[in-house]
Specification:
CATH class of chain B: Alpha Beta
Bound molecules: adenosine-5'-triphosphate, magnesium ion
CATH topology of chain B: Rossmann fold
Oligomer: heterodimer
Strand content of chain B: 25-35%
Distance between the termini of chain B: 30 Å
CATH class of the largest domain in chain A: Mainly Alpha
Structural class of chain B: alpha/beta
Largest interface: A-B, 25 and 31 residues
Shape of chain B: globular
Number of domains of chain B: 1
Radius of gyration of chain A: 30 Å
Helix content of chain B: 25-40%
CATH architecture of chain B: 3-Layer(aba) Sandwich
Radius of gyration of chain B: 17 Å
Number of strands of chain A: 14
Helix content of chain A: 55-70%
Number of strands of chain B: 10
Largest sheet of chain A: 5 strands, mixed
Distance between the termini of chain A: 112 Å
Chain lengths: 514, 231
């Protein structure tokens, strides 16, 4: 008799204990998928209502449903998505899979689990409709934009070497726009992006036939952790099913993507074959090539610094003189100039110079302005941008220097009969110059490192090159990173030593004013 | 050669010069004496256009300055070539050698050729007794030597008159002597000058002495007369 209540109590306790468990069972486990939404259409992008769409987005939704998991989009930087697999999935930015136009590659397949392909892409060459580029063989001598680190990048580099002016950039849409505006000659893009943008930009044409990127067809695959064997199997199952039952065909053939073609039909027979194929072609470059490329791009870094800094100094001195000696009509606008430039980021200024201002010039539809817009090359915009940015800091240095010169110096020069202008040039500026050498040298070192910002403008300087090389040589990520950092240090440390010596000499050498 | 008429200058609401009139003839040595704050420096600075003034006029060798917020820069430059100025604090250019300091006026104000300027400069350095310091930096000279270089620098543009604003006040007596010797030598040569000074020995040899007080010239006359009473 006593037993029953206790039994009941036990069952009740059991029920209560298991309630949380039931609740978690109802809430699906997330499938965290890594993607870079800035990569854009048709992979993943926001539609007119602001909601995410794109064939990869639909694919991820499909896979999550098949696996009975909840699709969770995790944003990342495209080139660094594989690295995100190295962290646990449940941390911030952690992912279970990466699904974003990544192709089947030997180095990646060695490190990560790899699924069967969900799409077969080719490389499409595009140029302006008015351009004289009509075949792939017309490319030498032209500027060619590619997505940095992409298969297209590698293909163009391998096929054309240094005969083309290769422009790499992380943003596909930017490149398309530049080609459309005839500010860049051509671009090579994965066929899905090409198809989308050909219909988007009226000024673009496809050139020649799309080509296969390498020895094997270009397979877009999903990467996951090698340890997640079960997940891999489930994904492969879902992918095969989707291909067989026509789900993929339905997604890909939608008018907004228009991606279904014979290459995809040809995937069906491969589903019975083992995956991944044996003997994937190796892609990485030998060390001497890597070092040569790094050194060449270090040369570009030096070039950017030594061309932009003298310009920054010249503008800065002019601005400072105007602020200190100019009438208010001159000094007030210059003060505003300094504050605006110092108060906005360098990256934004570079964007303005290369994208916004040319766009505005093109919109004027005046011949002279259009000519000017086309003259704004990435390198010129980079040099000018750095120069303008640093001119504000130099102006402040010189201003402080000019104000530090005792008034008596100017008066003595004027009393000798010099004009104001001569007195400034012969007496005040040379003395101010001595005062500002140490801060100016420090700024040069800072600018040296800030040249890296030009990498967003297709200028292949050291940082851009590092990004490209580690993309193509995933096994050497660490070595390349140290090498790149070492190169920066090797270039800036002697400058720092020089700065310190100058500072010491100026401080110890001469007691200035009577 | 220099005439100041009814000069009035304010610093803010403070009347620093109150209707000052003064004439200096060629070859005269004019001494300005008087208590601190009397407006002596301000008067000199008005004469070579380092200050503007509210009303009255200044004329130096035909170059006229009038009251107002600015001076015409061409007139100013011409005027300054005819009237040099030596400051209490020397104001040598520290980034130039002694020789370059002395050459700076001929080179940058008169646009002379280097050779010509250098010859004049060396002669002047010899005259102030600093021939062998031509390559030194001002910072490595004593105060008295610096002031003598400053005098040579001023003379290098061959001014018709030289204004001295307490040229020896920043110097100890020994160095002051060296500088005063140079100035006496100049005076003996007939150099026109206006000297603000507290050195009574020097003032005693002046052609005229003006006593300035509270922005006005309260007494003018031969040294013996004025200085006796001033003491
Ligand atoms: N830049 C200025 N701003 C305001 N007041 C000034 C300025 N320069 C001079 N003053 C004032 O003008 C008056 C005359 O000064 P000034 O230097 O001409 O006198 P000084 O006779 O040369 O005196 P000292 O013998 O001390 O050199 C003083 O009361 C001084 O405070
Ligand atoms: Mg004074």
């Amino acid at each position: 008799m006593k037993k029953l209540p206790s039994c009941r109590r036990f069952a009740l306790a059991l029920l209560l204990l298991s309630l949380p468990a039931l609740a978690t069972a109802q809430e699906k486990k997330p499938l965290r998928w890594g993607t870079d939404p800035t990569g854009g259409a048709p992979y993943i992008y926001r539609d007119k209502t602001g909601e995410y769409t794109g064939f990869e987005f639909e694919l991820a939704e499909y896979l999550a449903e098949k696996l009975d998991r909840k699709s969770v989009l995790v944003e990342g930087d495209w080139a660094n998505l594989p690295q995100q697999l190295k962290k646990p999935a449940d941390v911030e930015n952690g992912v279970d899979i990466i699904l974003n136009g990544y192709e089947l590659r030997k180095d990646l397949a060695a490190k990560y689990g790899v699924t069967r392909p969900y799409y077969v892409y080719r490389l499409t060459l595009m140029a302006s409709k008015e351009s004289d580029t009509t075949t792939w063989d017309d490319l030498p001598g032209k500027s060619v934009g590619v997505l940095g680190g992409s298969a297209a990048h590698r293909y163009v580099k391998k096929r054309y070497g240094r005969t083309v002016d290769l422009k790499t950039n992380p943003d596909v849409a930017n490149v398309m726009k530049l080609v459309n505006d005839r500010r860049m000659d051509a671009t090579v893009q994965d066929s899905p992006a090409a198809t989308y943008f050909l219909s988007e930009y009226g000024g673009l044409k496809g050139v020649g036939e799309p080509v296969q990127a390498g020895d094997l067809p270009g397979y877009y695959v999903i990467y996951y952790r090698k340890s997640d064997v079960e997940l891999g199997k489930a994904l492969d199952g879902a992918l095969s099913a989707g291909l067989r039952d026509g789900t993929f065909k339905k997604i890909y053939s939608q008018k907004k993507y228009d991606l279904w073609n014979a290459d995809q039909e040809a995937l069906l027979p491969t589903l019975d074959k083992p995956w991944p194929p044996e003997n994937l072609p190796a892609e990485e470059s030998p060390w001497p090539d890597l070092i040569e490329e790094l050194l060449l791009s270090a040369g570009m870094t030096v070039f950017l610094a030594v061309t932009s800094f003298p310009l920054a100094m010249a503008i800065g001195l002019t601005v400072a003189l105007g602020r200190v000696y100019g009438v208010r009509l001159v000094s007030i606008p210059l003060g505003i100039y300094v504050e605006v430039i110092r108060g906005t980021p360098l990256l934004l200024q570079l964007f303005f110079l290369y994208y916004v201002i040319p766009e505005m010039l093109l919109n004027t539809e005046r011949d002279w302005f259009i000519w000017l817009a086309k003259e704004i090359s990435p390198l010129r915009a980079g040099i000018l941008g750095l120069a303008i940015n640093y001119s504000a800091y130099e102006a402040e240095n010189y201003r402080a220097g000019l104000l530090a010169i005792p008034k008596g110096q100017m008066e003595a020069a004027l009393a000798l009969g010099m004009s104001r202008r001569t007195a400034i040039r012969r007496v005040v500026v040379p003395q101010a110059w001595r005062i500002v050498i140490p801060p100016v040298t420090n700024d040069f070192i800072a600018l040296f490192k800030d040249t890296a910002a030009c990498s967003i403008l297709f200028v292949t300087e050291l940082t851009r090159k590092y990004n490209e090389l580690f993309n193509f040589n995933r096994d050497l990520v660490i070595e390349l990173a140290f090498l790149t950092a070492g190169l920066y240090l090797a270039m800036s440390y002697p400058l720092a030593l020089l700065a310190r010596r100058l500072e010491r000499r100026l401080a110890g050498g001469k007691g200035g004013h009577p | 050669m220099i005439s100041v008429t009814n000069l009035t200058k304010f610093h803010g609401s403070q009347r620093v010069l109150n209707g000052v009139s003064l004439t200096v003839n060629r070859g005269e040595v004019t001494a300005l004496v008087g208590p601190s704050g009397g407006g002596k420096s301000t008067l000199l600075r008005c004469i070579n256009g380092l200050e503007t003034f509210q009303s009255g006029g200044v004329e130096v060798a035909g170059n006229k300055l009038a009251g107002g917020p600015t001076h015409d820069s061409r007139v100013l430059q011409k005027l300054r070539l005819s009237v040099g100025m030596v400051f209490q604090q020397f104001h040598l250019f520290p980034h130039m050698s002694v020789l370059d300091n002395v050459m700076s006026g001929p080179l940058y104000a008169l646009k002379q050729k280097r050779g010509e300027a250098e010859a004049t400069a060396r002669k002047l350095l010899d005259r102030v007794g600093l021939k062998e310091k031509a390559d030194a930096r001002p910072a490595n000279l004593s105060g008295g030597q610096q002031q003598r270089v400053a005098i040579a620098r001023t003379l290098a543009v061959k001014p018709l008159a030289v204004l001295f604003d307490e040229p020896t006040s920043a110097l100890d007596p020994q160095m002051a002597k060296e500088v005063l010797a140079v100035m006496r030598d100049l005076a003996a040569d007939g150099q026109t000058m206006i000297v603000v000074t507290h050195d009574m020995d020097f003032a005693e040899r002046a052609t005229v002495v003006h006593l300035m007080q509270a922005g006005e010239i309260v007494k003018s006359g031969p040294p013996a007369e004025i200085l006796k009473e001033h003491r």
